[in-house]
Design goal:
Layout lengths: L1 H16 L3 H7 L7 E6 L6 H5 L6 E6 L9 H13 L4 E7 L3 H4 L10 H6 L3 H10 L6 H23 L3 H8 L4 E7 L6 E3 L2
Helix pairs in contact: 7-8
Bound molecules: zinc ion.
Length: 194
Amino acid sequence: MVDQLFEGNRAFLKNDLAPNRAFYENLAKGQKPEVLWIGCSDSRIIPEQYTNAKAGELFVHRNIGNAVPPLDLNAGTVIEYAINHLKIKEIVVCGHSDCGACKALDADLEHDHLIPLWLTNLMPAKKRVDSTLAPATSDIEKADRLVAIIKENVRLQLEHLRQYPLVQAAEADGRIRLHGLYFDIGSGELTTID
Ligand SMILES: [Zn+2]
């Protein structure tokens, strides 16, 4: 597999870098992204591809379930750097269809140690959905319930994001805007979550 990566890199150098050398030479001097993209680690999610974004346009933080735990050193550092130093203008939290993290909220994870702990950051989303929806019986209802949990999780993580004082301050004085998005892997469509 690693050989494939080097082969892929050679193809990139030939097909992408060589014809766009000036763009990459300029890129090498520094970054000035305007968007912080918080998304899931899922291998099927390639935000730059789905949004047609070029290198240098998205500052990206990814983890299992696109979580923004209020006291997470990793996410917190990314957010602080993005707001205070990169002066990004928008923060996106993007959930996606078939998210394994959201599916795992129903799973028995007795042999795992860290995953259940991490998923506590998402669990209120499942509880909120189950408190408003009738229990799902058909496959369609189960699929709808999963999408509802995935979208509710994005709302939950936006709430977490707004617990960071620097996010609160930046949003209050109009320096940043926050957005919840949903990406459907099968259709390739990106939509806004209200
Ligand atoms: Zn996911």
